[in-house]
Structure formats: C-alpha cells, structure tokens
Hints:
The structure is a single chain. This protein is α/β, with parallel strands linked by helices and 402 residues long. Helices cover 24% and strands 25% of the residues. It contains eleven helices and 18 strands. The strands form three sheets. Strands 10-9-8-7-6-5-18 form a seven-stranded mixed sheet. Strands 11-12-13-14-15-16-17 form a seven-stranded mixed sheet, with helices on one face. The chain has a four-stranded parallel sheet with strand order 2-1-3-4, with helices on one face. The longest helix is centred in the last third of the chain and has 18 residues, at 358-375. The protein binds zinc ion (ZN) (2 copies). One zinc ion binds at residues 114, 131, 176, 178-179, 275-276, 351.
Amino acid sequence: MKNAILVSADKHWRTVMEGTLLSRGWQVASVETLVEGERPDPVEVQALIIDAASVARGALSSWLAEGAPKLEIPVVIAPGLTEAERFADALEGQMRTVEKEASPVVVRFWGVRGSIPTPGPATSFYGGNTSCVEVEADGETIILDAGSGIRPLGLSLMARAAGKPLNLHLIISHTHWDHIQGLPFFIPAYIPTNHLRVVVYSEVRHDLAHVLEMQMDSAYFPVAMKDLPSHPEVEEAGDHFSCGPVEVEGFFSNHPGLCAGYKLLTSVGTVVYVSDNELNFKGQAIHLAAETADHMHERFIATLKGARVLIHDAQYTRAEYNSKLGWGHSAFEDTVELAGESGVEHLILFHHDPLRSDAQINQLVRDARAIVAEKGWSMRVDAAREGMEISLYPKGDAAPPL
Ligand SMILES: [Zn+2]
Ligand SMILES: [Zn+2]
C-alpha cells in the first residue's frame, strides 16, 4: 500500500486530493499545516504532498531547513484542483504512453447517490446524482437504473453515437424515485430511430409500464410516456433474461416495496448490481415473503461468488444503522463483509446517503479498506463516484497500464 500525507489549510483541496489518490489505491492522511520538528516515517509514508496555494513557500523552506532528522521522502508540490487527476497520474509515473486496449466490458458511473439528488459543494467530488450505472458489455449498452444520473448519460450516449441509432437496455431495480426520476430527461428516448427497452424482474414490479406512465402524467411532466418518439418497449421479465449475448439474472434484495438486484454474466466475468439492500436486520429479510427470505445470506454469497465487480448499497455506517432498522439499506461494514466472504474481486460502495459529504466518503473508503486488510482479503474497495470507469479484461490477462 502506498501512503501519502497531504498538507493544506484548504479543507476542500484536502477532500478532493484525498479522493483522487484514494481512487488510485493510495492510503492518504491529511494535515492542515507542517508541524515544526515533525517528520513522517519513511517506512510508513512514501510522499508528502503540499498544496501550493495554501502553504507559503517561505514556511515550506524553513520547515525543510529545520534540523535533524532530515526528511527522507519526496516532497511534492501539488497544483490546483483542476489539475488533480493529471497530477495523481504523474505521481504514480503512470502517464499514459500507450493507447489503452479496448476492453470488452466497461462500467461507468453516472449517479451514485441514494434517495434524492444532492448537488452542492460538499458532494461535488463523488457527485450528487441518483442511481445510474452504464455497463458496456460485449457490444451491448446496458443501463442500470434511471436516477438523475441518466440525464448526463443520455447526453454522453448521444455524443458518442454521433447520429447513429442507439440500441439500449435499461434495467430497473425498483421504482422508488431515485431510480426512475431521470427517465423523462433522457434525451435518447426522444429520438425516433433509437430503440429503448426498459426491463424489470417481474416479481418486484408487475405494473412497470403504468408506474412509468404515472411519473410522466401531465400533473408532473409535460410529455407523456406514450408520446416519447422512441416508443420505449417496457418488459417485465423472469429471473433470467438476456441483453444480446449478456445473460442477466434478477434476484430479490431486501428493501421495502420489493427491489431486484441483477447479475450480468459477461464474457469476462460477472458484474453484480444491488443498489438498495438491507443486509442485516437482525439476520432477517423483513421485506421479503417467508419463502424467499429463507437463507438470504447464503443465497447472496452464492450469487456473488467470485464476482469481478459488485456494486452494492453502503448507505449507512453500523453506528447509524441502529436508528435506521427496516429502512432497506446496509451499513458499509456489512457490505464489505458480505463481499469479502463471497470472494468478490472489486467492491464498489454505492447509494451514498444524501447527508454523506465527500470528506466522509473518503473516510468510509479508508475504514472499508481497513476491514479488508484485517481480514486478509485481497478485494479492492472503492466508493462509487460520478465519472468513475472500470475496464474489465479477461482474467489472467495483465491489464494495460492505466
Ligand atoms: Zn434507492
Ligand atoms: Zn428504494
């Protein structure tokens, strides 16, 4: 694990730089100022990164010039936040020198928040849009949920299509607002030559078309669902359906009003999406009928076994969860344990609480990684962030440099 210490008096700078480095696998600690006589342990820390704007050059040189022990790790003067991503790449010596090979499966995050969109300065790093994940897999474009994140996804798809017709599969976990509210603003649905299939695991929603029509009723929105020029095809599917060559399995998660998780079987392994799921209500699946609730934990482990990527509800901490019993969401500690026990390769903490700030999500990532380290698992953990992209390559193939 690479460790860095960040120095800045600017809280926003620290949060963004921390998040940028955390997402590249660094372990990061932050301090506001350089403390006289204090030196990081070179065995523990590999870089000291200083905010050029908030730490005066004079203060830095006098700190560096202080007496023994001499500083033994590199001091890096970091640029402003607009350069944070490029800086983090350069720091790792991973500036792209070769073009990345096309990957058969790419997962992109467009909305990562639960419950309600939360724009604002405290959430600008991880993002405030509600649930929407794009999976480009084996030639198909699969969209998981239509929260407000589907609006920017629509713009991106239109730009990438450059006038060609789009063929899209939109899979809905359930119809709570944070999973459907972006659909009326999804521009590809307004283009007659596009094909939009909206699909749900029928056991969780028997009237999907009606619910989607209602949200576009004239009381709420000026365009009716039936007037969308692409004429979306709404489908209630069984627990197995396919999106081109990608087989999909739907299964119950534990959430009020019923909700589905989906397992996508791609050519390079499985990607599992469980946006809303309460893992640990005194060991009971309170939101499910008795026959489906039995052995929920064992069934989740079997479903998730060996997944390449698991995107899972991590709305609360265990401390918070005690006052949220029955609300249908998980404590991130339970999510990490389930994923670790299931041998998941890469866990993405998802459906961030509307109250969770960027700085708090950074802390969640640290705490989650500490659990993984303590258990001795090799699983990678990140927090979902708008704009984040995961490329999957066949197992055993070395991934090209980032
Ligand atoms: Zn939700
Ligand atoms: Zn919900």
